[in-house]
Amino acid sequence: MNPILMTQQCSERHQPATKMPVPLFVDLDETLIRVDLLVESASQLLCRKPWLVLPLAAQVLAGDRSRLKDWLAERTMIDPTRLPYRQEVLDLIAKRRSAGATVVLATASHRKHAEAIAAHLGCFDHVLATNGGPNLKAAAKLAAIRKELDRIGADRFDYVGDCEADLPIFQHADQSFLFGHSHSWPARCLARLPETRVIGNEPPDWRNYLRQLRPHQWSKNALLLVPLFLAHKWLHPELLMPVLLAIVCFCLAASGVYAFNDFVDVERDRRHPTKRFRPLAGGTIPLWQAPFIAAALLMAGVGGAFWLLGPAFALILVGYVVINGAYSGGLKRKPIIDVVLLTLMYVIRILAGGVAADLPVTDWLLSFGLFFFLSLAFGKRYQELAEAKLGDDAQGQTIRGYQVGDLSLIESAGISSGLVAVLVLALFLRSPDVTALYHSPRLLWLLCPLILYWLGRFWIVTIRGTMHDDPVIFALKDRTSYVIGLFMASIVLAAHAFTLSF
Hints:
By secondary structure, this protein is α/β, with parallel strands linked by helices. The chain is built from 24 helices and eight strands.
């Protein structure tokens, strides 16, 4: 159920029963929401103002959690409408409110953030939170709960929590509700407090970490095989193995950049209709783990490249990481620069494949790749803008620096780039390199209409608004693309293997 709909339900007032229902106190971090607001606010601050890393480190080393939260609350603002809420806890709150119980948000997070969440949900009668005094956790939270009970005239309470710090509160609660996020903690808690009710458990799942790596994006690294294929050396294991290792290094490095990008863009991803389900944005992977995942993947990719494939390939991979990082770090919102960088990230893979296999990459191949992938990059932006055009505020809508009025320009530039790519291929087919490598070079002219057909179909699908926002995903899911690819590979092999006079 959507938290907004939940808000409407839990805002309904009911007449209290003759006997006062037991008040319910609800923990916030990793209980009501899937994330920890201390980590959220610290990461938000570092992403927006990285020069404050030393003052933040000084606050952390001081060891005063309450003072640290005050310091962060002064410099950050959490958007409660985009946080990942746990539906099981929201349902429990709604049930208790419908019975007339008092519901209190009791959290160690800062009052500023806690009150914003309470105001958004509208289902809490009061808020207990850290605010200049002791850090409201464990025994300190229990003391605050007892004061609140005296204020409302109750002598019992129920509590919803998630971690071992909540044990002192569980022990004094009339009824305890546990939402776990580990494999062992719910069982250990039940062993000590058998009456505790487990209302949910979300232990770490390897599938979430795999999703974070974005393995579907690894298909782009198949471009490293292009120089090997065009040189007809794919049956040489001494050349194939280095290229396969190079692909692994590129996959690791790319996943590292994705992890860091998701860490930086977590707030923006939560506002996106589909990206809000990514592991970091959805809270299924703790946010604090993202920098370590990114660092480990980048070190494994670049380190493996240097150790296994040499400094030249490692330097190209570092260049790819820098371009990808610059693109993800802000240049993806700069018109034209973004599509150029996207194109370079495709072309650099072809160049890296040649270096890994120690094969020359011709200017013809680089030129064709430049214009071909430039066409795809423009298609990606066209699709995003076309979707924005369907919104209510079409005239004022801006996507990554582009406006809806730029659609015709992007369409012209994208289609023109694709035609130039085919022209480069046609000119290449008249070069001496072709006659030296192929027995039937004229057979390769069949590639031109096939590529023209694929590009034309790609742009028709894009203009009609039925393409996925990533051309690579489109090609992987498109049967026609596989058929055309099979025809093209057959033509190249036939031109190399057979001598036909025509």
